[in-house]
Amino acid sequence: MAGARVAEAPVRQVTATAYTIPTDAPEADGTYAWESTTIVVV
What we know:
mainly beta; two-stranded antiparallel sheet
């Protein structure tokens, strides 16, 4: 995009937390089975 301006700012800190959430019942996709899901919140 011609003439576009880009603002730059340093990232000084990032906070992340991981949560493991159990599933209601064991789940599988035919190659692997699991009993929980992990999410990362940034």
